[in-house]
């Protein structure tokens, strides 16, 4: 959960920077709005040791502006029951798609706060893949040498571009509802792309002015990713350090007493990609005789690639497929 005002300045924080706060609230509300063509659920939770008397204003701010669940629990005397409560909340918020984040024994009885973010996404393609065109193919990867994967296939017009530095193909696959998946397929190893991965570069690589609608023969494996991360060390690398340090953290805007700090920050994500598309799209697709097709580009994702899912200008999800 992100808050743009210093936590120590807690006085009426829900009224501070009303334009920014209301914009964030609208974004979260839009993301979590149910849609007939896709499922997208984002859940944020803050679980704090009950001996800390959280400021009422902070609780209201977190719940009202960020749709966050704020709950005081008993880490000290019943850590496993607390772990169960956290998991039940996550399961409810993700409609049963994500059931666990913390393994038994992974939360210490000395913990004072746990932050959890859970994301579930499943979408329907605007241009669906046909299931009878899916075949088994070998996926070339050191992580799963010789593995046969279900390779989806279709040939249509897609937004497509070729980047020279670092060398890769970029393909946009649209979901209904204003969401797109961008796939970055390197010539070989995706490490060169990863080394240069920034938000600015992502926007540049998928700049509409540099992509064009072309006939592309697409080979894309079905894949499902369910991953659990402890992201504290990533945030420390970005410079967010003090809130994880018991002696330096200043979260007095959350609770008085000066003893509060963040002990764990976990992220669990789930995404499934299949052939599915909307019924209308499958029924009304334009049939084109093969001999009339212009020469197509070939986008063959039979080796590791990167992807990210974007709704408007918001990146919802990103990942790497090394072994579908």
Automatic annotation (TrEMBL):
One example of the protein's molecular function in GO is: serine-type endopeptidase inhibitor activity
Q: Which UniProt keywords apply?
A: Cytoplasm, Phosphoprotein, Protease inhibitor, Serine protease inhibitor
Its subcellular locations are:
Cytoplasm
Looking at the keywords, is Transferase present? no
Report the domain of life of the source organism. Eukaryota
What Gene3D superfamilies does the annotation carry? Alpha-1-antitrypsin, domain 1, Antithrombin, subunit I, domain 2
Q: Where is the Serpin domain?
A: 7-324
Any Pfam family: Serpin
- How is this protein annotated for GO cellular component? cytoplasm; extracellular space
- Primary location recorded for the protein, binned into one broad class: cytoplasm
Reported function: Might function as an inhibitor of Lys-specific proteases. Might influence the maturation of megakaryocytes via its action as a serpin.
Q: Which family does it belong to?
A: Belongs to the serpin family. Ov-serpin subfamily.
Query: What is the protein name for this chain?
Result: Serpin B7
Organism (species): Leptonychotes weddellii (Weddell seal)
